[in-house]
Amino acid sequence: MNHDIPVPALGPQGEVMAHAVDACVHCGFCLPACPTYALLGDEMDSPRGRIVLMKEVLEGALPLADAAPHLDRCLGCQACVTACPSGVPYGELITSFRGWSEAQRERSPLDRAKRAGILKILPAPKVFSVAARVGQYAKPLAPLLPTALRAPLDLLPERVPAMQPQPPVTLARGRRRGRVAFLAGCAQQALTPNFNAATLRVLARNGIEVVLPEGQGCCGAAALHTGAREEALRLVRQNLAAFDPEQYDAILSNAAGCGAGLKEYPVVLHGLPDEEQARAFAAKVQDISEFLAGLLHAGELEPFLPTSRPLSVAYHDACHLAHAQGVRAAPRELLRAIPGVTVVEVPEGDLCCGSAGTYNLEQPELANELGVRKARNILSTTPDLIASGNIGCHTQIGSHTRRQGSRVPVLHTVEVLDLAYRGEL
Amino acid sequence: MSFSPRKTALTPGSGAPKPRSKGTPDNPLAAELTRSLGPRKVLSNPSERRNYRYDAIQFGATPLAVVLPENTADVVTAVRAARAAGVPVVGRGAASGLSGGAAPALPGLVLSFTRMTRLEVFPQRREARAQAGVVTLSVTEAARPHGLIYPPDPASFRTSTIGGNLGENAGGPLCFKYGVTGDYVKGLQFVDADGDVYELTRDAYDLAGLLIGSEGTLGLITEATLRLTPPPKYTRTLLASFAEVGECAEAVSRAIATGAVPAKLEFMDAACTNAVEDYLALGLPRDAGAVLLVDTDGDDLETVEEERALVEAACREAGGTVRRAATDAEAAALWQARRSVSPALGRIRPQRMNEDIVVPRSALPEVVREIRALGDASGLPVVQFGHIGDGNLHPNILFDPRRESSEAVHDLAHRIALVAIRHGGVLSGEHGIGTMKRPFMREAVDPVTLAALWDVKRALDPAGRLNPGKILPDEDVEAHAHP
Question: What range(s) does the 4Fe-4S ferredoxin-type domain occupy (chain A) (predicted)?
Answer without folding.
Answer: 14-44, 65-94
